[in-house]
């Protein structure tokens, strides 16, 4: 009986390690990919320098276009763009927005930032096309983009006659 009391705890530990190893081997390829994507995202999110973080987030989206984390990665990228807009770094906002649009052209919020940046630089024709795209892509800031588009157009032309031409041009450019 004395030896059984000594061996039993050791056998329990061995069984725990064996069960853990067996569990790890049962991970599906999809679970493995999600874990790897998550670990990669965590490393990227820890990067302090915003432009370096943006570069890595964009690369993630290019490398893993079907990742389940793409919504989170996209939000992280747009947050960097928003930080630059808050700091009124309009050239950076334009550059980062255009880079993102080349990878994910159907994300309306990006066009909001692009339109705002161009309007701040007094490039109103380009700003209005970007705002119209944001409006057409139906995202959380679409209504705000439409209001700002109306404001810019009316301020430039005195009324809203002809605004539909800008919206139609934007629709054609986004393929809708």
What this model shows, in words?
This protein is mainly α and about 180 residues long. The chain has 2 domains: about 30-90, no CATH class; about 105-175, no CATH class. It has helices at about 1-25, 30-45, 50-65, 70-85, 90-105, 110-120, 125-135, 140-155, 165-175. The longest helix is centred in the first third of the chain and has 24 residues, at about 1-25. The model has no long low-confidence stretch (mean pLDDT about 90).
Output the keywords.
single chain, 176 residues, mainly alpha, 9 helices, 80% helix
Q: How many structural domains can be distinguished in the coordinates?
A: 2
Largest sheet descriptor:
none
Query: Quaternary arrangement of the chains shown?
Result: single chain
User: Runs with pLDDT <50, length 5+?
Assistant: none
Percentage of β-strand residues: under 5%
**How would you describe the shape?**
elongated
Structural class: mainly alpha
- Helix count from the secondary structure assignment: 9
Q: How many β-strand stretches? A: 0
Q: Mean of residue pLDDT?
A: 91
Order of helices and strands: HHHHHHHHH
Task: State the share of residues found in helices, binned by percent.
Answer: over 70%
Instruction: Note the gap between the termini.
Output: 79 Å
Brief overview:
This protein is mostly helical and 176 residues long. Helix content is 80%, strand content 0%.
């Amino acid at each position: 009986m004395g030896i059984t009391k000594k061996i039993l705890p050791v056998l329990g530990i061995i069984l725990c390690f064996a069960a853990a190893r067996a569990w790890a081997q049962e991970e599906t390829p999809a679970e493995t990919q999600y874990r790897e994507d998550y670990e990669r995202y965590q490393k990227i999110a820890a990067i302090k320098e915003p432009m370096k973080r943006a570069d890595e987030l964009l690369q993630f989206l290019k490398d893993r276009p079907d990742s389940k984390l793409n919504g989170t990665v996209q939000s992280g990228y747009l947050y960097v763009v928003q930080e630059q807009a808050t700091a009124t770094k309009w050239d950076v906002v334009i550059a980062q927005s255009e880079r993102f649009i080349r990878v994910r052209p159907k994300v309306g919020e990006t066009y909001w930032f692009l339109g705002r940046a161009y309007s701040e630089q007094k490039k109103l024709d380009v700003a209005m096309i970007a705002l119209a795209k944001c409006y057409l892509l139906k995202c959380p800031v679409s209504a705000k983009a439409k209001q700002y588009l109306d404001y810019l157009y009316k301020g430039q032309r005195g009324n809203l006659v002809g605004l539909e031409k800008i919206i139609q041009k934007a629709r054609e450019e986004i393929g809708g």
